[in-house]
Amino acid sequence: MVKAxxxxxxxxxxxxxxxxxxxxxxxxxxxxxxxxxxxxxEWISVDPYQRAYNSFNKIPYDQFGFQVAVVEDSKNPSYPIxxxxxxxxxxxxxxxxxxxxxxxxxNVIYKLPNLKDLSPSLGIGAVGMPGATAYxxxxxxxxxxxxxxxxxxxxxxxxxSMVGQIAKIKGCRVIGFAGSDDKVxxxxxxxxxxKAINYKTADIDKALKEAAPKGIDCYFDNVGGxxxxxxxxxxxxxxxxxxxxxxxxxxxxxxxVVKAPILQPSIVFKELTIxxxxxxxxxxxxxxxxxxxxEWIKSGxxxxxxxxxxxxxxxYDAFIGMLAGKNFGKAIVKI
Length: 335
Description:
One of its GO terms (cellular component) is cytoplasm. This protein has 335 residues and is of the alpha/beta class.
């Protein structure tokens, strides 16, 4: 019998998730049945959507999320011992899974993509859900053209940092918003953004007009709120917006409603296209994105950075740190 641990969410979050909202439960796993596999978790992902989707689940629930795991025992010939896989089993150190059962996204199981000697941890980052989010949100929804101006918020995070780099690969001018001068420096000096702006200290409207005097063609929105209204007001006719998230409001308590300037005049008179998306809608095309992303990483066109926390008991701390914007690039936990 294998003893496993998992994080169970006990409460609906009010504001920033609290340690007491979670309970670490230890339990024994049953013996394997036909077609099942026993997996040991190696890397766990912490992401904004884990906060956003809290209210959609019936409590208590096991904290979901993407992970890299290795098969330790198997009764499934397609997944022999030693196989590395990506699952959505979340914050647990061991699990029993049946890959043959129907998979309802985001609860997927698939073998780690061919990373060509890159770290397996990229399977939950640049060559995982965040990478696919950046790839499809930018290329399939914004559809940037050579020479256009692309703006991305949350630019130093897992998704935003890749959006900006992919836009540069596609020949665009890129402006990113981030929450510290260190992140601004990283975006401009290492990732090649044409301009990065610290939204906490800058006059956003003025700084954006100076950075994009000819207007904005594409906007990849990770944060929502007032900053998004300002950016959208400066878009060019026929501009495209991919709405990926709204992290600026995730930790607001229900009594503190976030307000922002209305968008309709800009949308109507500039004939803007604004589309929200969930990346699992592109699930069957993830492999082609992963192949391209690996090629860009190996060729040096795409720089990846991971913000690593170590230890199963530190997952909560990594999660809260990510929500507070402490991470450069992808926040992950090594188990």
